[in-house]
């Protein structure tokens, strides 16, 4: 099955199960969790069911297009169900069935993996779902976002699309995947992976990145002051991506890492507070 | 008599937490049933990652009746002169709702009183269980909890069903928003809808049918048997430790062992890396040939039968990708100059308030001088010194950042790859080992020396910051590190005084002499208590032997103390022990309370005394030499040879002579004898044998 068919199938399944099908976010994010459709919406009381395809950047995971399943930009399919349903696990297993996976003849395990994204003050408790040893999904009960305890709790299901495709298409190598009609993953991504790996690990201008990190941070602070928490959050995302490149470039010491993460976490926390105040004023 | 069946159905609980929860459940159930006077025959608890099961057999259907005595007023004030009840008695009867015939007399310390025997009927087991189950579940503690539903009850993972049957009847209760029912879930993927349960027998049958092996022991045996089969079929060794076995047992309700292979080209990577990636990343077991060479085969445990080899094939693909990652880290780390990484340690904190790892390596560098000298390893000095500077460099490599358990090992491997001398890379490679007293012996003494330095620095640092070890808590591994030091000393027969090392380590964490003295004394106490504990509980020396050694000289020469304990343990099995005990006790009794005196030969009176002194002088040299060469058994025989002369002396000579000078001289002679015995051990603390 091609990647685009997997996306279509998942959209179909989750749409049938009551989700609104959103578009992915248009700023670099490390994971679907960081998108406003997740970060903000899990903070509200109101129920929220959303599903979307989200390209995600992890500069440190780049392998110059040489690793069979690790890339600096991969694709996630993100599902948020709020409140977390009682039958979340069986819904998820049904979605695998919908993709054509015979769950009775594969070793599907829920293996402890408590996900956390300290820079946006978010964490959850849950599992990585393994299918014959391959991690295909992250299954998490969201506990906090922006450093605020969530009530109600959301269930977050994050499929790794390339992983699913490799499994379904019985491929050993990510670059042998098909994206869609006559379009291969290799043709779409190989050059991009090479160039970004070189950039992230070798060429990225450290001084420049440090400088824009500070500027993004200042802008976010200014916007929080003006109650413009939505654009402020965009700048936190930009900080986070900049931080990730610096990290891949090995430019961040352990002590500095703690400080920078705290900077981002504080910004996220203030944004989350503003959002809750605003949302409560409007419709709760 | 009834039976009671309970299942808490839950989404996958981390394998590492399960034993702790089982323990708490068992403990809490037993306590609560005892408190509420419910009798039962046996209680069994088992668990998988998806269910906790409690089965109680022959549970009484109601609690025992409770009898109590309620004391009323004294007889004197209860009955008036006409023999009629007074107001006091009437009020008492009214309050307790009894009539006069219920009242009995009782003799107390304060005189004759009136009282009643009240019998309260025991409540039904149904009602008791209804109350105690939510209470027990609510009191469970976990290393981390979560919230998932409106009840806002924190628990380890979401609860999905509660089965609760007393005599096959549903007990209706609710916990964390989940109502009890007769339904359970089967295997995650191999069984579909909810299964209705009618009895314990039916429960076991249904689970068996639905691919759930309830008993831990059965899953354990199934895994071990299947692994043994693989070993036999392929003529290989599969390495599995307790942690991995526990993981497999609890992470699979229907464990099935499978094998797979990977491309041989990955065997070019160091085997330590390959096995770490297999175990930590993919939960697969490395496989070795009979000569302990790593093979391109792995073993894993699936939660379903793998008839079509889907699981095996899938894992084969995944493991190759994982090795590609390993190769990427390895190649990339090798691009850096490993030696230069030390500079980066200046930015890595060791522990709060204890400086950076660079500071730590400076301290290690200082400590190893003493250790190399004291253990006569001067020929390795340069290499161990360099190892002490470089041993933490791997903390800033990508591999160790990703897999902290490879610390030390990677440093060693990177140095080996640079063609460093064996004494250097092996010292770095092993210096985090051993992790306690029961670990295996290090294979290089350089690693042993660096390990001691690293650990005494940890211990002194943490203790100086006020961190304490309690019987249940040791978050900084102080006890473990202390045990490891004693282990290395004994393994490598290192004959040096730990006191010197303690003093040197303490220097770096204290600013004035007072603090230093305090820290040194805390550390001495720590080592003494660990030596005592290891000797008694891990080496199984008799407690009185350990007690006597602990109270003798030079205990902090840990290796010497170990040899003493070994020899004294042999001596206590012989007849001569009682002679030594009696002698030492007698000596100690007499000299107790006296200052130390010097012997003056001029004051020796009579033959008995002169002969004893002569024999003492002769034996002393011999015995001291025997002690120096750790030959305690012979040293004891020498003392026993002196015994008739000493006995004769006690018989013929009055120690407490009238002339003070003569008395003090005689005490001095006995003090010398006591000193000689005490060099071996304090025999007076050993229990005489019958």
What is the CATH fold-level name of the largest domain in chain A? BirA Bifunctional Protein, domain 2
**Structure annotation, total helices of chain A:** 8
> Low-confidence runs of chain A (pLDDT<50, min 5 residues)?
none
Which descriptor suits the 3D outline of chain B?
flat
Indicate how many domains the architecture of chain A comprises.
Answer: 2
Helix content of chain A: 40-55%
Q: Quick one: biggest sheet of chain B?
A: 7 strands, mixed
User: How large, in whole angstroms, is the Cα Rg of chain A?
Assistant: 19 Å
CATH homolog superfamily of the largest domain in chain A: Bira Bifunctional Protein, Domain 2
Average pLDDT of chain A: 94
Distance N to C terminus of chain A: 42 Å
Instruction: Extract low-pLDDT stretches of chain B.
Output: none
Number of domains of chain B: 5
Summarize the structure.
With 284 residues, chain A is α+β, with helices and mostly antiparallel strands. Chain A is built from eight helices and eleven strands. Chain A folds into two domains: 198 residues, Bira Bifunctional Protein, Domain 2 (BirA Bifunctional Protein, domain 2, 2-Layer Sandwich); 78 residues, Up-down Bundle (Methane Monooxygenase Hydroxylase, Chain G, domain 1).
Please describe the topology of this protein:
The complex is a heterodimer of chains A (284) and B (690).
Chain A: H1 3-16, E1 20-21, H2 36-39, E2 48-57, E3 73-82, H3 88-98, E4 108-112, E5 116-117, E6 122-131, E7 134-145, E8 148-149, E9 155-160, H4 161-168, E10 178-180, E11 183-184, H5 185-203, H6 206-225, H7 229-248, H8 254-282
Parallel strand pairs in A: 1-2
Antiparallel strand pairs in A: 2-3, 3-9, 4-6, 5-6, 6-7, 7-8, 7-9, 10-11
Helix pairs in contact in A: 6-7, 6-8, 7-8
Chain B: E1 2-10, H1 15-35, E2 42-48, E3 51-59, E4 66-74, H2 75-78, H3 87-96, E5 104-108, E6 111-120, H4 125-139, E7 159-166, E8 169-170, E9 174-175, E10 178-181, E11 183-184, E12 195-196, H5 200-209, H6 216-234, E13 237-238, H7 242-251, E14 256-261, H8 271-282, E15 285-288, E16 294-302, H9 310-335, H10 357-374, H11 381-390, H12 398-402, H13 409-417, H14 422-430, H15 445-464, H16 478-491, H17 498-507, H18 513-538, H19 543-550, H20 558-571, H21 576-591, H22 606-628, H23 632-652, H24 660-680
Parallel strand pairs in B: 7-10
Antiparallel strand pairs in B: 1-3, 1-7, 2-3, 4-6, 5-6, 7-8, 9-10, 11-12, 13-15, 14-16, 15-16
Helix pairs in contact in B: 1-4, 6-7, 8-9, 10-11, 10-15, 10-17, 11-14, 11-15, 13-14, 14-15, 15-16, 15-17, 16-18, 17-18, 18-19, 19-20, 21-23, 21-24, 22-23, 22-24
